[in-house]
User: What shape does this take?
Amino acid sequence: RLSNCTCRRLQVLHAGCGISALGPFIAASFPTAEVLNVDANASAVAVCSRRCPSDVADRCSWKVADALRLAEAFGDAPRFDVVIDKGLVDSLLHGGAFVAAAYVQ
Assistant: This one.
């Protein structure tokens, strides 16, 4: 079972987290996961970080950053094992296929 895994830390990026509780849910479900929740909206990031359950708070972090400019926010150093995108591409598609394609690249 993944919940009993003693493997190395799993680095998870939750792009476009908004006010979702998905990041803390992932951390609670996978004890080896460290989740970085990213959104361009500073208010959403503040709300989510305050709502994070204390039992996973040490493995969840938040950053205000534009998902279209993650390289600017993180540079070349950070690497993630998993990238979660729960609805961000749908939102970007409303801005046109070019914007969504730029994100996916």
The mean pLDDT is 81. The chain has five helices and four strands. The radius of gyration is 14 Å.
